Predict the structure.
Amino acid sequence: MPSVAEILIPLALDSAYSYAVPAGLTLTVGDVVQIPLGPRETVGVVWGVRQSPSGSNLRPVTGRLDVPPLSGPLRELVDWLARYTLAPKGSALAMALRLPDEAAQSETVRIGVRASGKPPARPTAARLKVLAVAADGIMRGKSALAKEAGVSLSVVDGLIDDGALEATALAPEPVALPPDPDHARVPLSEAQGEAVRELIAMMNPAPPPGDEHGSPHLTPNLSFQEREPVPTVETRRGLTMGVGDETFRAPTILLEGVTGSGKTEVYFEAVADCVRRGRQALILMPEIALTAQFLDRFAERFGVRPATWHSGIGGKRRERIRAGVAAGEIAVVVGARSALFLPFAKLGIVVVDEEHEAAYKQEDGVHYHARDMAVVRGRIENCPVVLASATPSIETRVNAERGRYRHIVLPERFGGRRLPDIAAIDMRSDKPERGSFIAPALIAAVRETVAAGDQALLFLNRRGYAPLTLCRACGHRYQCRNCSTWLVEHRFRKALVCHQCGYAERRPDSCSECGTFDNLTPCGPGVERIAEEVTALFPDKRMIVLSSDFPGGAERLRAELQTVAEGGCDIVIGTQLVAKGHNFPHLTLVGVLDADIGLTSGDPRAAERTFQLLQQVTGRAGRGEKPGRALVQTFQPEHPVIAALLSGDAARFYEEEIAAREAAGLPPFGRLAALIVSANEREVAEAHGQALARASEPPDGVMVLGPAEAPLALIRGRYRFRLLVKTERSVDLQSYLRDWIARGPKVRGNVKVAIDVDPQSFL
Ligand code: ADP
Ligand code: ZN
């Protein structure tokens, strides 16, 4: 009987397609193949093979590609991802299957040069300098040689043409050198040592009775390297940790520690343990926290920088990292959320740093949460997952409290350093001067701080100069033409910009509505406006504004973060990108300019998010030798979030917040999903939303709310309506959604329905 292969194609298609397997070709599940699709050829992955008499009527597979097959765990992850998020299975596959593209093939070859021994035809001074450097016979890169000799590249090229230098193609530089788990082991504090022992004990199966010698957590001096490597066996669920331990289920562990407690050093030890066992480690970070500072810190501990993976890594390098990871040669990857889909051959640990970060949720295409998918991948591979945070998400905290996750706590800062003292500035009584945004008490504190030679950080989570521009004559407010958003003035760019779609226009000189000249007024502050105020107040102090939208991109940002870390500036003004994970040892004062932003949004996580952000940003203070303090400008010091921040009673805040969530049946005590209907015309979007609602037929334990106009009612010219599904925890949300969509109205014309399971954004 002919063989039929079910081929999953990495496009927005839900199911696999059947193709005939031509005689002479044997296919197995996971193989990457070329197939005809309509008039063209495309690539797919074998998802199943069966014998069927109908086989002869099908179009045949063109052939198998010479690339490593998609492994069992990754196929399982793709299936799981599609099932959970309701994304088309092909879209989920696309994330795990990034094939080499044309651009990747054409990477420039590095050329190495060395002296050939033949004298140059024209021995100019510059040429002789080059030959003097090259005289040692060592192969150098062309530009390295030019640089060392202090001449331009053309001099080197001339010598190659001349025959005085011989040139050959060099082997590509390795994408990552092997990290040395014992390169520089910092002495751990007692609390850290204890945490490491607990962590490593949890990560590994208990030794057989009587074999206390081999037990890592009983080794008093933390020298795990003395142990024999643990033999491993293959099982269906991936690799188990040791012979005879097939029943060991690797746990998910919450590593909770206040800012500056030394969590990084603790999970580095777990990573080192994993590397010593010859297994691979993945450290996930929110993209923005993936800084040079972190990579250097890794290099200090492990001797080399790790392989990195994020959206900015392109072409050939991506392919080489993928290949190195698949071959098990790359031991540690530090990456943003998409690193979860790398084809690790023998994954031994996943660390999710700053696990509470909303940035882990992908908000377009496949709506997945990288933290949750990390836990899933850990289950599939039977490898431990460590979730690290100073301010864990409510979801993770509840999982830890209920025993689904293990829990390790570092209650104090490393080195006896104190957490900053936090005080409120009540903006109702301690008002800034007219037209300014920094209260006198905060100005005084900044003055004191910089006078003492320390650094101050002023935090405002708003890019640009002013969030709203209006005409004083007619009251006209400048709005985006594609979105229901106010245009934000960016004074450095001399433009009004939409933060939703990027639309920008020149800031007009006269009102575009009533024509009054020079009468536009900025309302409210953004970081650029604070910078203006600080410049006026402290003209002779060095100031840096850190905002993700400044020209110069990631390079400049990295350089400026470095400057701040080294103490090369007095006052830092920044958006939330300064709040995350950075270590600024000279920083002793943090001023929060508007602690109330975000408290009033309709998001069920508004309180949690604000608390986390404020804890993180105030936690930047006092991480060095000197103690730190924070001043928080607020109009509502008695709000539970602000009160908890001031008292430092995080435990109480979380307890109350968890109780409130439970009472309201919100995650993690109930489930949520959002359906976002969009269309080019408002009525069309609304009508489709209403038709969906009519088809919802919610059973017991399910509530369907809406359609309601989305808070961002218009984005990029598309009108948006939202439906919210709220269910009890025991309900199979995915099955319900699937059935509902199936019996719901057909999607016609330009209507789109996005499904967002476990929504993090409610805009
Ligand atoms: P967290 O991630 O918990 O905020 P970090 O791991 O960044 O904390 O540590 C805070 C600071 O303490 C860093 O400057 C780090 O270098 C330092 N530190 C932590 N552990 C040690 C240690 N065992 N020895 C020396 N310095 C340490
Ligand atoms: Zn817009």
User: Anything to note?
Assistant: The mean pLDDT is 88. The CA atoms of residues 260 and 413 lie 5 Å apart.
